[in-house]
Amino acid sequence: MIRRASGLFVASLLALTVAASSADAQVTINGRVGLGVPTGGIADSDNSALGVGAKSGFAWGFGLGLDLSDRFNLRANFDRTTHKTEAGDATSGPDVNVNHYIAGLGYTVTDPANPFYVSVNLGAGAMTFDIQAEGAESDTYFAINAGAEIGYWLSNSVAIFASPQGDIAFTDKDKYGTSSAFVWPFTGGVKVKLGS
Predict the structure, then answer these.
(1) Which helix (H) or strand (E) holds 4?
(2) Hey, is 52 helix, strand or coil?
(3) Based on the number of CB atoms within 10 Å of its own CB, is 155 exposed (0-12), middle (13-18) or buried (19 or more)?
(4) What does the pLDDT read at residue 39?
(5) Helix, strand or coil for residue 178?
(6) pLDDT tier at 4, thresholds 50, 70, 90
(7) CATH number, domain containing residue 124
(8) Rounded CA gap, 130 and 108, in Å?
(9) Buried (b) or exposed (e) across 106-142, using 16+ Cβ within 10 A?
(10) Which residues of 64-97 are buried (b: 16+ CB within 10 A; e: fewer)?
């Protein structure tokens, strides 16, 4: 399942690259770091299925964008969030790493001529949960995404930004104690326009 999710993500990146090469389109790349925040059932230390709850942890990611117009853009992003776990009695459990493979559409709501910008996005993809315990297997589930990006163009080709995102995986309730696992990557980073 990890290979399948990785393959889908790579395919979306390749599709963006091909689209960019076949038209006079603007391509951006970005890198970011921040915090991954789980909420809901997966974060509950009294989770009846897992026996532990996932805690907030380090997040990092990178992405590729293709501007379709001054306001619309296609996006493909990978994020990795790492989480400690804890039971209700404060006993530590196994670490959990979550890989987020998301592609979608973004829309800039501010004036494109203004260096300060705000955009919103919707997407879908997959999330892989990798429990760091002996004998545990990773699980990959369909996921949806919604979020925003707030940034400032320092020049024609370089911007700094913050990106609050909400990713929801439709998990196996019997295994994860919830049928919708919420993990929120709150990150910030640098975006670069290629060929500018």
Answers:
(1) helix 2-22
(2) coil
(3) exposed
(4) 92
(5) coil
(6) low
(7) 2.40.160.20
(8) 34
(9) bebeeeeeeeebebebebebbbbbbbeeeeeebbbbe
(10) bbbbeeeeebbbbbbbbbbbebbeeeeeebebbb
Q: What is the extent of the structural domain holding 43?
A: 2-193
- Measure the CA dihedral 165/185/164/5, to 10°: -30
Give the pair of three-digit tokens for residue 126: 């997959």
Domains identified in the chain, total number? 1
User: pTM for the whole thing?
Assistant: 0.85
Residue 142 reports pLDDT greater than 70: yes
Evaluate if residue 2 carries a pLDDT over 50: no
SS3 14: helix
DSSP of 61-130: EEEEEEESSSSEEEEEEEEEEEEEEE-TTS-EEEEEEEEEEEEEEEEE-S-TTSSEEEEEEEEEEEEEEE
